[in-house]
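User: Hi! I have a protein structure encoded as tokens and I'd like to know what sequence might fold into it. I'm fairly new to this, so please keep things simple.
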């Protein structure tokens, strides 16, 4: 796979989501570039073009965010986007209304609570199975 310069990849993603005027806020996590967009339809129409870019793994539209999965070099692309545009590192603009569904917000809180407990629950289930197996022998 040909490696694309992160600056070029960032510019292409920016153009395909509708330009910097369409981005309400932009952040990133370990592998994803996360954007809240004014007009999500623009980016959704170009979803397959974004996925076809070298360096992009996939695109996810979730919880009101347009997420571009890039991988471990996402901080470099994010920093270059911030440095070369008028976008800033604000986490969220308080003046913009959040258009996420209340059900998604509740599910996000529930998932945040139970996600750290999943390994414990899975481990206790395996342990319980081993105990039952040992008692049946």
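Assistant: Happy to help. Inverse folding works backwards from shape to sequence: for each of the 137 positions I chose a residue that suits the local structure. Here it is:
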């Amino acid at each position: 796979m040909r490696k694309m310069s992160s600056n070029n990849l960032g510019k292409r993603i920016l153009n395909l989501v509708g330009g910097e005027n369409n981005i309400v806020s932009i952040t990133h996590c370990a592998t994803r570039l996360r954007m809240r967009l004014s007009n999500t339809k623009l980016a959704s129409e170009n979803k397959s073009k974004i996925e076809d870019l070298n360096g992009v793994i996939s695109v996810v539209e979730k919880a009101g965010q347009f997420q571009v999965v890039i991988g471990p070099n996402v901080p470099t692309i994010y920093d270059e986007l911030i440095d070369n545009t008028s976008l800033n590192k604000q986490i969220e603009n308080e003046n913009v209304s959040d258009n996420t569904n209340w059900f998604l917000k509740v599910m996000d809180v529930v998932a945040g609570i139970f996600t750290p407990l999943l390994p414990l629950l899975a481990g206790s289930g395996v342990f319980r199975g081993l105990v039952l197996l040992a008692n049946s022998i």
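A useful reference point when you look it over: The beta strands are 23-28, 32-37, 58-62, 65-69. Feel free to ask if any position seems puzzling.
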